[in-house]
Amino acid sequence: MPAFDPVRDAVLNSPLTPSQSLAFLKSPPTSSLPLAPSSHPSTPQTPPRTLPAQSRRPTDLAALLNADPTPRTSTINQLLRKDAEAAPAPARKTIKYSPRNRISPPDTVLKPMSQAEMNMYRSYQGKGAAQLLKRKRSPDPEPIPDQPPAKRLAGDVGVVVDHYNTRPDVGVAQRETSPIIGLKSFNNWVKSVLISRFAHPALTTSKLVGRARGRGPPPRGRVLDMGCGKGGDLTKWGKARAAEVLAVDIAAVSVDQARSRWQTMGGNKFDATFAALDCYTEPLSKAFSPAKLAKPFDVVSMQFCMHYAFESIQKARCMLENVSKWLRPGGTFIGTIPNADQLLENLAGVSPDAPDLTFGNDVYKIRFEDRTHTPLFGHKYWFYLQDAVENVPEYVVKWDNFVQMAAEYGLHVVYKEEFHDVFSEHREHAEFGPLMVKMKVVDANGESAMDEDQWEAANIYIAFAFEKR
C-alpha cells in the first residue's frame, strides 16, 4: 500500500465534480503533475500520476481563500463597451492570507457590544459635534405677551393644525393663479356681504370709538375673529372701519402669518392683538389679558371653521361660551358652515355598490366613514378642496341642533341662506352687485370666473347671522 501523502491525497480527492473524479481515475494521462516524494526512506517511490488540466482544483490555502474559481465574463468597463465580449477579463491579483499580520486581537472579532456601548453610539455625535454644542447659543426670542406657549396636538385636531400650519401664505399675485380663484373670490364676496349687512351695523352702534384715520367717520367697535387663519379677513375689517380686532386661531404658524399681514396693512389699519388658542377646549381668558376682555365685543366672526367644534358636545359648548360670554347684548355673531342637509342627502345618494362613501367632483371631494350612524356630534367626514384643503377631518353641523344650543347662550338666529341664495339675493344689489365685479367674481359682462365644479363646491355652504339678546 502506498505511503500516506497528504498533498497527493488532497489532489486525488478534490476534483471539481464527482463526474470529473471518475474521469480522472479512468482516463489516460494528459498532463504531468509530479507528486512530492514520500519522506519515509524505505517506501518505494510511486510512479507519478497525471491530472486532467481542466479538472484540477488548487489546494494551496492562499489560492482557496483568495482565488475566484469562476472565471469572470465581464467588468463594468466591458459592459459599457460595444466589444465587451471580445475584451479579455483583467487578471486578478492574488493576496496571500497572512494571519501573522492581524491588526486586532483575535478575541475582539465578532465580540458583541455591551449595553453601555450601544447606548453611547446610539447618541454619539463625534468630537466636532460635541465642540459645537459647547458654543454659546443666541438667546431665544422673547415670548409674545398674553400668548400661551404652543403645544403639540394629537388626533383629528393635530391633523387639522398641521395642515393649516404647513400651508404656505402666498402673496396676492400668486393667489390670482390658483386653479380655483373664482371659487375663492366668490367665498370672499359672501363674507363681505355678511360683514356689510350684519357686522357693520353692530360696529357703528358700538360705544367704543377709536382714533380717527383719514377721511370718514372714526372707527368704532371691537371684533373677535375666532379661527382667523392667516388673516384673510383683516382687510374686510379695515373696510368695515372696526376700531379693534382680537384674532385667535388654533394654528400658531397661521397666527404669526396673520400678524405679519396686519403689520403690512395700509391706511385702514386698526388696533389688533393675535393669539394661538384652541377656542373649542379653552376659554379666551387663557389667551388674552383681563384688560383685553374688559370691554365686550360688538361682532364675533367664525368663517369656515365652526364645524370643527362639533366633534363633541363639550367642544361645541365651549365654543358657544367663548362667543356669547364676551359679546355685548345686541352684538352680532356671523359665520359660514357646511350645509348638513345637503351633505347627508349626497351621502344617501351614494350607490350601495360604490367602493367607499365618497362624492364630489374634480374640485372637491367628501368621504364619509359610515352611512347609517348619524350622531348629533362627532359625525365625521373627510374633506378635500383643490388648492386649499388636503383631506382633513370635519364634522357635520346639524342646523336645528345648533340653533337650539345657541339659544341656550342667548344667541338667536336672524339670517340663514345657502350660498347660491346669497348670490341670487344680492347680485342686483346697488352695492354688492358692483362689488362682485370689483372682487372678480364676475367680469364686466357678468360672466362668472367659476366653472360648474367650483360652483357646486361653493354651494355646500350656508351663511348665518345670530344676535345676542
UniProtKB/TrEMBL annotation:
Residues 178-469 form the MRNA cap 0 methyltransferase domain. Its EC number is 2.1.1.56. It holds the Pfam family mRNA_G-N7_MeTrfase. One of its GO terms (cellular component) is nucleus. GO terms for molecular function: mRNA 5'-cap (guanine-N7-)-methyltransferase activity; RNA binding. Residues 1-73, 127-152 are annotated as: Disordered. This is mRNA cap guanine-N(7) methyltransferase.
